[in-house]
Amino acid sequence: MKFIHTSDWHIGRSLCGVSLLEDQRHFLRQFMDYLEKERPDAVVIAGDLYDRPVPSAEAMELLDEFFSKTVLELKIPVLAVAGNHDSGQRLAYERDFLAKAGLHMAGTLTNPAETVALSDEWGPVCFHLLPWLDPAAVNSLFPEEERVRTMQEAFDRMTESVFLNVKPGVRNVLVCHGYFSMGSGGSQVEELGGSELVDLSAYRDFSYIAAGHIHRKMPAGPNLRYCGSILKYSPNEIANTPSVTAVELDGQGGCAWREVSFPPLHDMRKITGDFADLLELPRTEDYIFAELTDLELVLDPARRLRERFPNLLGVAYTQREQISSAFTVEAEEAKNLSISELFSQFYQEITGVSLSEDAVKLVSDAAYQAEKEAHE
């Protein structure tokens, strides 16, 4: 069986005030062309379809376009779970319109957990759908049980629900959204993106675990994989290469996968250098974060850079931040220094260059005027 694992679409997201909807539309249309050519047995979306619980009308129209094309026209089942950015109730409502056609959307928790069985020449593959969950949601689902307090306890409780649908000798796939590992030796960070680290060792016999929430593609265990987001969504993700993961299961539950990337409408890059040098770089429509190494402040750098980089998203002075600000003067020494002398020492410590004579005079005049006004 061949299915496509994808997650973290964040449809409707904006970055630095710039809407990424057209970038997302560009990706999804390439993705639909790929699906039409490859004809996988299913598409698995591991959460965060939308960027916010109440998406815009434009965001909803774009996702509906994907569902209609994939489920109704291509006849490819879509199995999805809600992520922490989604409204589970809203996604569950959307599912009702296309459920019979092959859209399986686990927006909210159920007991037992929702399971979808698809078949190939070797028999059934059971996809177990676990949407984003927290202790409060699990406690509401099991009011008669002992209350859970942590994400680990919540997943352990839901694991019992999932395993009600596990049959011996049948290949199983878990679809989930959160921060996961497989036993010891994982990440030392105990929380990421509002999710506590959860050990999914109970699922180590599953053929594959399709996880969402982390935007960087990576394995997190022998059978646990994050496919990453479909676009770069922050400056911290510039090094990422967004993709989807094509997964193939053999008749014994063995798993092979490969990454499939699509050219973005706009790449996201960081450029670094003196302001004058950056102005000499080729014009580009990419999303740009500029890092200026100038020691002196540049007048209105964003406006001037935007003439060459129309999709400039941010400007920062890296060199000024890197220079040590640990400037100290002993109290007794400070008593014997004028304000202009103190400022000159401070300026040299921060910038690495001496204050000009004209600047020293300007500081001295300003200090004199301030002191005069204080005594009037």
UniProtKB/TrEMBL annotation:
Residue ranges of domain Calcineurin-like phosphoesterase in the record: 1-216
The keyword Nuclease is annotated on this UniProt entry: yes
Keyword line: DNA recombination, DNA replication, Endonuclease, Exonuclease, Hydrolase, Nuclease
Entries under CDD domains matching the protein: MPP_Mre11_N
Gene Ontology molecular function: 3'-5' exonuclease activity; endonuclease activity
Keyword Electron transport included in the entry's annotation: no
Any one Gene Ontology BP term: DNA recombination
Domain Nuclease SbcCD subunit D C-terminal, residue spans: 265-349
PANTHER family for the chain: COMPONENT OF ATP-DEPENDENT DSDNA EXONUCLEASE, NUCLEASE SBCCD SUBUNIT D
Function: SbcCD cleaves DNA hairpin structures. These structures can inhibit DNA replication and are intermediates in certain DNA recombination reactions. The complex acts as a 3'->5' double strand exonuclease that can open hairpins. It also has a 5' single-strand endonuclease activity.
UniProt family annotation: Belongs to the SbcD family.
NCBIfam families: sbcd (TIGR00619)
Subunit structure: Heterodimer of SbcC and SbcD.
Name recorded for this polypeptide: Nuclease SbcCD subunit D
